[in-house]
Amino acid sequence: MSEIISGKSDFIKANVSNSKNDAVAFEMKFAKDLTIAQLKSKLEIITGGNAATMKLELYNGDRYVSTLDNNDAKLGFYMHSDGLRLHVVDSFASFDDEMVQKFELTNEQYEQKRDTVRNFLLQNRVGKYNEDEMRQREEKRRELAEEIQRRAELCVVGSRCQVTVSGNPTRRGVIKYNGPLDGKSGIFIGVQYDEPLGKNNGSINGKAYFECPPNYGGFVAPLSVEVGDFPPEDFDLDDEI
């Protein structure tokens, strides 16, 4: 059998959603020992938000659990299991909207005020008002997107592969699908595993993307897939003493 990972994982998987653009939640993994401040910095790259004004809320499905309001606390303090949802709220954008609505100011009038969050960020070159910082964020987003695209292009249907996902044993199989999934953003790789260590039969929500026996199929991000000469593991126990 594939190697069984013992002990608790140092990482946790969470779905990330963003109130700024109402994007569909997507799954990511984070180290449990990240501080909330460090987590916000990482989420800047993904969501385009601002760590200095970002608010993080934790949900179990649609049920509110808590607000991650201690920047010095570790992520593992708030999240103990996979599958919860981190919701990113751009509090700076919300504050601006409330101010404009309350005082009925035009954008030009608001920018002329000196006692606003926007003016503070502008004067101190924070977040989107720091050109160097914004260029670095954009460069990181571009590099990540290019790496995902490169890895996806290597995932040719019919190729042997090895899948490594945090918290799961390393699995081998055959690539059966490469493309989008309904209701999800990005590209996913469909794999038929050599063992029944998957979650489906190649179908999700009633739609078939490929066919395989039950519990032999799975869909993962391109970054989790390594294509190569990975022969099926030998599970013949005839020679066992």
TrEMBL record:
Key words of the record: Chaperone, Cytoplasm
Cellular localization per UniProt: Cytoplasm
Residue ranges annotated for the CAP-Gly domain, each copy included: 179-221
UniProt keyword Chaperone, yes or no: yes
CDD domains membership: Ubl_TBCB (cd01789)
GO CC annotation, single: cytosol
Molecular function GO terms recorded: alpha-tubulin binding; microtubule plus-end binding
Gene Ontology biological-process annotations: cytoplasmic microtubule organization; post-chaperonin tubulin folding pathway; tubulin complex assembly
SUPFAM superfamilies reported in the protein's UniProt record: Cap-Gly domain, Ubiquitin-like
Entry's family note: Belongs to the TBCB family.
PANTHER family (UniProt xref): DYNACTIN 1-RELATED MICROTUBULE-BINDING (PTHR18916), TUBULIN-FOLDING COFACTOR B (PTHR18916:SF85)
Protein name, as recorded: Tubulin-folding cofactor B
Native source species: Drosophila lebanonensis (Fruit fly)
Lineage of source species: Eukaryota, Metazoa, Ecdysozoa, Arthropoda, Hexapoda
